[in-house]
Amino acid sequence: DDHAILLESQHGTEISGNIFYLIKELATNKDYADFKIYLSCRAGTKKKFEAILKHYKIKNVIPVIVSTKAYMKALASAKYLFNDNTFLPFYLKKEGQVYLNTWHGTPLKTLGRGIKNAMHGIGNAQKNFVCADYLLYPNRYTMEHMVEDYMLDNIALGECLLGGYPRNTAFFDKKRGDKIIKELGLQDKKIYAYMPTWRGSTGNIDAKANAYFQYYLYELDKLLAEDEIVYLNLHPIAKKDVDFNTFKHIRNFPAEYETYDFLNCAECLVTDYSSVFYDYAVTGKKIILFTFDEEDYFADRGVYKPLSSLPFTKVKTVEDLLSEMRSPKNYDDKEFLEEYCTYDCPEATKALLDFTILGKKSDHVKEVPFAKNGKKNVLLYLGNLDQNGITTSGVNLLNNLDPTEYNYFVSFPAEKGKLHQDTIANLPEGVNYIPVQGVFNLSLIKKKMWLKFNKRKFPFAPMMASMKKEWQYEIARIYGGAHFDSAIQFNGYETKMILLFSQFECNTGIYVHSDMVKERELKGNQRKSVLKYAYKHYDNVALVTEDIWESTASFVRKTDNFKIAHNIIAYDEIVRKGNGEIQFDEGVTQSNKELSEIKSILDSDAKVIISVGRFSPEKDHKRMINVFNKVWQENNNTYFIIIGGIQRDGIYDELCEYVKTLPCADNVILILSMTNPLPIVKKCDGFILASHYEGFGLVLVEGDILGLPVVSTDITGPRTFMQKNNGTLVENTDAGVEKGFKMLING
Question: C-alpha angle with apex 481: 479 to 484, nearest 5 degrees?
Answer without folding.
Answer: 80
